[in-house]
Structures are given as C-alpha cells and as structure tokens.
Amino acid sequence: MVINRMVDSSAAQVPEPLDREERERLLASLLASPLFAKSRRMGSLLRFLVEHDLQSSSTPLCATFLA
Prior knowledge:
The chain is mainly α. The protein has one domain. It has helices spanning 20-32, 34-38, 40-54, 63-66; strands at residues 4-5, 16-17. Helix 1 packs antiparallel against helix 3. The chain is flat. The model has no long low-confidence stretch (mean pLDDT 79).
C-alpha cells in the first residue's frame, strides 16, 4: 500500500509519495474521523497497514499477519 499525494490531476503525471510525517498526520486525521472513531477494530487495522507500509517492509501482507 502506498499513499500518494496528487501533485497534478493530469494522467501523465506520477504522484509524489507523502513523507513519513505527512502519512502520520493523515493517519491521525483518519482515525479521528467518525467512521474510524466508531470502530476500534477498523482503526487498528488501518494503523497496522500504514505502519507496515512506513516500515518499508519487504514482507508481503498475508492472512496470518492480519489475523
């Protein structure tokens, strides 16, 4: 999973990746939203997925990790 920032809406442009601090701010904002605030499990899953991505782990996600 890669979170990207759209610099230009043109299809010819490649999105610029967000830096770690921007990703963490975005995660905090999402977790504070009503959808994630209502569900601790959904918030935990989102946090796990983002943190896995931030670690740049070469370990692919599989059902064992998510269970």
